[in-house]
Amino acid sequence: MNNLQSFRSLQANGFGKNFEKLIDLACKYYRAEGKADISKIDEPFRVIRLKKAGRFEGQFTKNANPDFEGTLDGGRSICFEAKYTTSDRLKQSVVSDKQAEVLEIKSKLGGFAGVCIGIKDRYFFIPWEIWSNMKEIFGRKYIRANDVSKYEVIFRQGVRFLDYKYE
């Protein structure tokens, strides 16, 4: 990997982490309002070697599940993956096979499953039924912001993924 690719990879990782923090702010808001209890799920890993100054070498132990899980007021479960891009489109393939499998199961069991996405400065919560059938619905395996404008959510106290902008 050359320096430019390395920089872009680090930059994309940083955008993704910031996006997850904005979602976590909304989780705290929903918890305080009594609307939901939703938490970020850490990726499973193990420590291989301890280093100095609190550092360590680690290894992921299995494929990651979706990023957030919890319970909505009334008892319905919620489970979703978070994805962000600075480009004008987001590919369906950004959700891993393992994540898709989990989201499909949760959806079939009656949970509120989906993908919370950021495309540049717009934010959306796409229900799993829409995301998983992207090819049939949009004719391609990627979406643009205008394709999913009805799923746009508000940005206040974070990315408020339960509050659609146009409801």
From TrEMBL:
Cofactor(s) named in the record: Mg(2+)
Keyword Isomerase included in the entry's annotation: no
Keywords: Cytoplasm, DNA damage, DNA recombination, DNA repair, Endonuclease, Hydrolase, Magnesium, Metal-binding, Nuclease
Pfam families the record matches: RecU (PF03838)
Subcellular location: Cytoplasm
Source organism, top-level taxon: Bacteria
Xref: InterPro entries: Resolv_RecU, Restrct_endonuc-II-like, tRNA_endonuc-like_dom_sf
Protein family membership: Belongs to the RecU family.
Listed name of the protein: Holliday junction resolvase RecU
Organism: Anaerococcus faecalis
Lineage: Bacteria, Bacillati, Bacillota, Tissierellia, Tissierellales
